[in-house]
Amino acid sequence: MTEGFGARVDPDSGAFKPAFQPVSNGLRGLALAGIAGIGGFVGTWAVRGAVRDGYSPIDDAISQLAAAGAPSPGWMTAGFLAFGIGVPIYAQALRRAVPGPAWIAATATGVAIIGVAASPLERADTAHYAFAVVGYATLAATPMLAARTFRERGASGWARWSTGCGVASALFLIASTADPAHGLTQRIGLGITDAWIVATAVAIWRGRPRGRLER
Q1: Could you read off the pLDDT of 178-188 as tens digits, one per residue?
Q2: Interhelix angle for 182-206 vs 25-51, to 10°?
Q3: Is 37 exposed, middle or buried (0-12, 13-18, 19+ CB in 10 A)?
Q4: Global confidence as pTM
Q5: Structural domain count of the chain
Q6: What are 9's strand-pairing partners?
């Protein structure tokens, strides 16, 4: 029996199989780092983009806010670092709650974003773009890799949503490399997978802590 966004009841054993594996209280807390990291990242580009004269969130990429020649680039660099540190910490909770390779992709995304922060535009363009491509690819891959685990656990709703998020994110991020309104398509592509990370972090946090019999 499949319960969509919930879990599956094994027809042979009658055991309840949750969409997310129960995790310890410590790991549940780590999941919240993903929310904090994304909040810092999104909040920074939203505020800095709004107050910078001549900057358009529709036409200009987020990285322009941290370019070497940009006014007060340190704010956006800090936003990148918030994401780059917070998401790999969240990935440790994801590793236990959603077994499989998704946590590796999430960790790689964080590392790539730290690389983006360390190689700003107008100073290290080649390295910046290389790290950005890796970050885009691994970010879009994270929900798609998790979808396989959800599918195996009978959580069809999570599986379908995860697949859809990954595919949609990839399409928008690819489009952002050629779209004149690349600032907008970039933000949509990133926002889709950011929302997925926040949703899974909340699900892990709200899940039943792992008890003695489940160790």
Answers
A1: 888 999 999 99
A2: 160
A3: buried
A4: 0.89
A5: 1
A6: 16
